[in-house]
Amino acid sequence: MAKLDSKVPAGNVQDKWTDHKFNMKLVNPANKRKYDVIVIGAGLAGASAAATMGELGYNVKLFTYHDSGRRAHSIAAQGGINAAKNYQNDGDSVYRLFYDTVKGGDFRAREANVHRLAEVSNSIIDQCVAQGVPFARDYGGLLDNRSFGGAQVSRTFYARGQTGQQLLLGAISALNRQIGLGNVKEYTRREMLEVVVVDDHARGVIVRNLVTGEVERHSAHAVVLATGGYSNVFFLSTNAMNCNGTAAWRSHKQGAYMANPCFTQIHPTCLPVHGEGQSKLALMSESLRNDGRIWVSKKKDDKRHANDIPEDERDYYLERKYPSFGNLTPRDIASRSAKEACDSGRGVNGGEAVNLDFKHAIERLGKNVIEERYGNLFEMYETITGKNPYKEPMNIYPAPHYTMGGLWVDYNLMSTIPGLFVLGEANFSDHGANRLGASALMQGLADGYFVIPYTIGNYLADNKDPLMSTDKEEFVQAEKRVTDHVEKLLAIKGTRTVDDFHKKLGRIMWNKVGMARNEKGLKEAISEISQLREEFWKDVNVIGSAGTLNQCLERAGRVADYLELGELMAKDALDRKESCGGHFRTEYQTEDGEAKRNDEEYAYVAAWEFKDTGNWELHKEDLEFENVKLSQRSYK
Amino acid sequence: MSDVKLKLKLKIWRQPGSDAVGKLVDYDVEVSPDDSFLEMLDQINESLEKNNQEPIVFESDCREGICGACGLVINGQPHGPVPRITTCQLHMRHFKNGDTIYVEPFRAKAFPVLKDLLVDRTPLDKILQVGGFVSINTGGVPDANEIPIAKDVAAQSFDAAACIGCGACVASCKNASAMLFVSAKVSQYALLPQGQPERQRRVEAMVKAMDEQGFGSCTNTYACEAECPKGISISNIARLNRDFFSAKLKSKNVS
Ligand SMILES: Cc1cc2nc3c(=O)[nH]c(=O)nc-3n(C[C@H](O)[C@H](O)[C@H](O)COP(=O)(O)OP(=O)(O)OC[C@H]3O[C@@H](n4cnc5c(N)ncnc54)[C@H](O)[C@@H]3O)c2cc1C
Ligand code: SF4
Ligand code: FES
Predict the structure, then answer these.
(1) B244 assigned to some structural domain
(2) How far is the CA of A505 from the centre of ligand 3 (A)?
(3) Most buried in the list A212, A215, A511, B40, measured by CB within 10 Å?
């Protein structure tokens, strides 16, 4: 099996990437045509990678389960994208962005990767502007910035509340150009269900055509996964309905290690669950915490309307507990505090929601100012809930949002299967145990525009074998795994729906592998999930047939994978006997209830090797902090 | 949260495949006014599956009004009765107890039905692939602040760029024209300095592709603007027309 070597180049952190770029092998321009590269996913990471590799001259095949790349989940990002431009002259620098990201990640990310991310951040903004991305500008016509949690400088570039949309459409425009020129061939409505490994190297994929149900084999010299995160393991999350972990999980089962799967981010400002029929949770931008004050009643089970609860009976708990950061504490801390308040029975109506109140801000600044700042968000809130946040507090509650964990990759973004690269949210690399706002967009585009185009050349220069025939035994076997899996699902014909299982799994994950975890709950989760998985394979009812457009079958395949992934998340959380970032073990906290890291024993990346279902072997990549000093985060 | 449920009669388009004949099928439902329209369809599907029947196929992803995947014709209107929102943002509180609701796919020659309520909108992407971009490669571009752009010009460009590619403009047009969609992309670039070098070539190529993909021509009925969930303005169409005619005058490809 593959050895865990991070391949971080030697030298100063500032010089590593420059030196590495110089030392890597190149593929001669005329030879690039001879290489086929498969890219799975057309989000920020996949679209930017496919477009750039197409420009360089590789033969790129791009796959997505959507009808169009523009539908990828990246489209939904609201807030913005970070870069160390220092246009505001407020003391920002590549080093500061690097430092903030390592610290924000609670010291569980690889320094060298994070530094590279900060280094290329500025080129991303240049690239997007040149593509015609209409970023927000100030009156002088220059680019505007805003600030985000976990940073003391203003480095976030944005396009109203639709930054992800505009960046993705920019990347898709570059991709469309390459498709038009014939350098990239796109395969839409195709779901990748297997990676084909020949002589320990990734040499192709098996996909299912979601319209006809046909199963297809595709061969290439390298495979790039940019398939996004797995927050939907919780059933309810801020992710789009179709986001899933299948591509990563099927690759994991073929030999790609899964790293830090328990590191998930629960976002503090989402709309609470309204009822049984709820299908997803809407995110309300974190920027609302700049002017909104968060509170609950001091009394338990208080059924009064928020406006009838007098000032002295309200508990502004973040302001009380964290006087210096107040309502702007980092995401993990704000989320956990909301949970504590509601668990003690003091949530809105005694339930799972807290108030986000603009009354004082409106009194202080006037309704016009608030409208100018947050008008579109207030409108969105009213569209969904039918309530007017100018007149009564918003109700919010934390929700699963982002997965820092993902497939393990080395410095070149290559997984433990040589020739299988992983970009964007699907890999584990840059955010440690907690991601800062506006850093995911930056990472996706850094990986796609500026990292993979170099590192893949270095790999291909050493792997020149001709394109493999898809008649080869390994392709036949991989296809058989797919058709067998599909047939097995369809043959069960049980009594319970796919969603029923997904909701049950989500509830276990939320209660026991969510914002606060402990040994007892995690052990219970592991046995409950494996039991649920057994029931699934006996009693799920997957309607319809394989040879047609069948959304029920698509969902069933994804839920089957979640039922394995969920168990590994619990196992990883159980194994990590410390609290860090989004991973909070109630046994490991300071006297005043803050996360307590254990750097002596746990300053490592946990990379899990799949053995068989429910059975993994742990490999550790030790993390070294040569530049950023290990310290306890404090936001008091 | 409201406890009073709405009793509704739904007439939903069912069509097993692109070549099959479709028909409206009746479903009776009880839903909470807090549920969204698509959550109501989820609930119907859940009960169909429990009864061993094929769930209704429809498309959605973000359920926040930004990905453009959802799109149903509800009581004859693309994205339903509430202006300026997508289907996924429509909530049941806008309906009354006892209502009958017709649910059909977006219909246009260029958008064949694949199954039930799901249609193929890829012809929109084919138009973008011939000109919906600025022809630059990754790397070697100028600093982002090198070319200042007036705040209001950037904002106007953004307004056009906000199109989500849902195709409601096509579905609402009696000619099934994609003019609003194409003009939004053309305008985003026409307003920016980065879009100038290819301005003429772009508009010609995209208009030609629009015709080739089977979309109809624009006869200025403005139905598209009324149904567009993102408020894309028909002034973009005027801009496209101006650019197109001036391109034609200068063009070598006179046809
Ligand atoms: C509501 C919301 C708001 C956010 N706001 C911000 C923000 O303001 N700033 C920020 O930095 N980050 C934000 N994030 C996070 C950020 O948007 C994501 O982490 C990022 O966009 C992920 O990009 P990606 O390219 O890795 O994956 P995605 O955009 O998820 O793309 C995945 C792609 O893979 C394809 N795919 C997946 N599996 C398969 C398969 N098996 N076969 C074929 N294709 C497949 C999909 O079709 C899709 O094209 C936000 C996230 C959410 C949920
Ligand atoms: S112009 Fe409006 S209706 Fe047409 S595709 Fe764009 S957003 Fe949809
Ligand atoms: S589901 Fe994305 S716009 Fe409706």
Answers:
(1) yes
(2) 25
(3) B40
